Every structure is written in structure tokens, then in C-alpha cells.
Amino acid sequence: MGNRHGCCFRTRGSDGANSHLSPPINSEVPPYKLVSPDHPPPSSSFSGPNMASLSLPYPHADDSLRALSGLAEGFGHSAVGGLHGPLYHVTSLAGPISLSSLYIHTFSRHPQPPSSEALEGKWGGEGNLLGYGREKVAVIDEDDGPGSLREGCRKKEPLWIVFEVSGTIALSSYLSVSSYKTIDGRGQKIKLSGKGLRLKECEHVIICNLEFEGGRGPDADAIQIKPNSKHIWIDRCSLSNYDDGLIDITRESTYITVSRCHFSNHNKTMLIGADPTHTGDRSIRVTIHHCFFDGTRQRHPRVRFGKVHLYNNYTRNWGIYAVCASVESQIYSQCNIYEAGQKKVAFKYLTEKAADKSEENTGCIKSEGDLFVHGTQPGFPTTASAVTVFHPSEYYSTWTVEAPTDALKKVLQRFAGWQRVPRPADITK
Questions:
Q1: Domain extents for the chain?
Q2: Is 285 part of the annotated catalytic residue set?
Q3: Which end of the chain is more exposed for a tag (fewer CB within 10 A), N or C?
Q4: Domain Pectate lyase, which positions (predicted)?
Q5: Around Cβ 375, how many Cβ atoms within 10 Å?
Q6: DSSP strand pairing (135-138 vs 129-132)
């Protein structure tokens, strides 16, 4: 298929950062290669003779409803979501009150009612009291109310949120998700548009099998994780066409896994680490695996400060670069497929100065077993870095990784993102 750098089956590299690895003389199955004849991948994951030998993650994720809890590979492996809470059934995609009608009625003495973006930026949303001039009114989001997703995510107790209806939830403001929640879209087709989910100072959240498309307004991200959120797993979601980012992970949010997601029709796909002034982002730890970055322009991801493990992702036809390492970041890129379009260089390095340092610095990318096809150039720096990139086994002992082959590429093209899968039974002891 192309040039492969390094060997996928190696537990540890002894050479420096930003260098490709040579295949070991005696290749052994490493501790992170999960192959178990007792746990084969689901039959739906195979559509051709070359795919039957693939070992894929999460073969039993759909055996029961709560099997997702604690199942994530990588840094988000501790995320339990709403494991210990009851089911919450979303029965309504829209509330009875229109936000726009409230504007017109309440602010009728003004020639032009303020936009929802202006109100949100000045006072916040989600049912808060918003002031304008000398008046104060309660603004109720049109997606709120009994049986709504917003109501379930707002509750403080652990909940496993499931859907009894399919359709689009048009969010008029960010939907804040509180701790110990699972938002489980299996069994229905749920699309979020307008705004996105905000994970603010929360922990143990699982987001599964949703679509995000058409987010509008400044700072409109599909999933925004900041600040100080941890133990998060985003799995099997389709994300496209937001005005800002698709997934942003910043301001000391950490222990996060993004897996089996499909990203398309977008510019700034995924930002990890806010800016050079947020030096606390050195605590960020993120795993991204088995995702399909399908013609998105840049940031797959872009990283500042944090440590990121990329494995078995397929990134194609980017518009600027595939992966960017900026100030003090460490990226371990393992057995990914990079397939260039017009822009041939996969890796980009940007130099910035951390707020608590006197000199500028860039980040590091270590490529192990990556496959660069269709004339893709890795873009390794000409001078070796003195920084040693972390190895994932320092943080977790097992993960499922395959050689980057045509079979893997076909699986990711077909099965990354939202899937038409039934909701599993809720088997409780």
C-alpha cells in the first residue's frame, strides 16, 4: 500500500523521539495485542475475506446495555458513565416554548431583538435569567422540558440516558452534561444540531452512537470538554460541519478516549490543549483510536502540552496537515493510515512559548508502524529532539492494535461513526 514506518508489534522503542522504528529481529506478540479466541469480534464487522483475521476492540460492547461502563481502551478506561443509576428515557426532542417567540414578545419595545448568540455570549443560556436593559426574563430553551435530553443531563444523580424517539434535537444553547451520565443513542437515530454538548467540571461521562451536524455561532463545538473534566469516553459518533471545532479538549481535562468516530466536512476538527498560557494542560491525557478522519481539513488532532496516543486511525485527504504537535506536546502515533490528497505532509510542528518558560518550544511525534500512502510524506523534523516521547504502556497495559492494512481501512470506512444497532437489554443483577 505504501511506506510503513516501524513495526506495529513492538512494546517499547529505545531510540529517540520523532524517529521511525525498525522491525525487531524477533517479533513477539506484545502485551497490548489483544487476541482472544474466546472473544471474537462481532460478525457485523466483516464484509470480506480479508477482514476475518482482524482483531477489533469492544466485541462485547453491545451484549448488554451497561457493558460500556469501564470498557474503554486507553486513557478513558475508567469511565463508568451512569452505571449505578436508573434509566432515563428521552421521549421528547423539543419543548413546548420557542426561544424566538420569547424574544419577540419580551423585547417588543426594541426595534431588533438580540440574537441567541449575543444573549448566550453575554449572560449564558440553559434556562438562566437573562437581563436586557432594565428587564429580566426567564429564557427557556426550546429543547428543554419533561422527557428531554437537556433535563436528563442536568440531573445530578447517575443516569443511563436512552432514547425512545428518533430525530433531530435543535439545541439553542450548549447542553451541559453533569457527572456520571451515559448518553446512549443505540436503538435510535439521534442528531444534535445548532449547538453541542458541554462537559464542564464533570467526570465519568460516556457518549455513544450519536450524530452531530450543523453547529452555528462563535465557539460552537460539537463536544466541548473544559475545564477540569475527566474520565470521558466518546464512542461511535458521527461529527461534521460545526462553526468551530468538533471535539475540543482543553483546560486540564484529562483521561479521555475517543474511539470509532467518523469526522467529515469540517475545518478545525479536534483541538487538545487551549493555548500557550494554559500550562495546566500538561496534565491532559487522550487516546484516539479506530477513528475515520474523512477529508477534514486539519487538527486530527492539534495538541498543546498533553500526551496523546493515536492508533489504528484512518486519516485521508486533509487540507493543511493530518496531525500537529505544538508546545511541549507528546504524540505517540501507532499503526495509523495516512493517505494524502493534494497536501502531502502528514505531520506538522508549530513552535510556541509556554507562559512559564523563557524560550519557545515545539512538540514531538513518535511514529511506530504508521502507513503513509499515495505519496504521503511523514514530515519528520530534520534534527532529532532531545525529548523522549511517552509510551502508552506507562499508563495502561492493554489495547487492541492491528497492522495498518486495506482490511482495516475498509472496516473504519464502514463502521466508524453512528451505527444502526439495536439497544441492548438492560441486564442488572
A1: 87-94+140-415
A2: no
A3: C
A4: 132-344
A5: 11
A6: antiparallel
Choice among 299, 302, 304, 316 that is catalytic = 299
User: Which pTM does this prediction carry?
Assistant: 0.83
Helical (H) or strand (E) element with 74: none
User: What pairs with residue 167 in β-bridges?
Assistant: 190
Q: Find out if CATH 2.60.40.420 is the number for domain 87-94+140-415.
A: no
Q: Which residues pair with 302 in a beta bridge?
A: 271, 324
Q: Return the bridge partners of 338, or none.
A: 315, 372
Three-class DSSP category at 279:
helix
* Rounded Cα–Cα distance for residues 33 and 181 (Å): 30
Instruction: Report the distance separating Cα 25 and Cα 23, nearest Å.
Output: 6
Grid cell for residue 218: 462563535
Cβ atoms 205, 199 nearer than 8 A: yes
Compute the distance between CA of residue 92 and CA of residue 374 in angstroms, rounded to an integer.
47
CB atoms within 10 A of CB 233: 30
β-strand partners of 257: 233, 287
CB 20 within 8 A of CB 6: yes
Within 319-384, strands assigned E span 323-325, 330-334, 337-339, 347-349, 364-368, 370-373
- The whole-number pLDDT of residue 54 equals 87
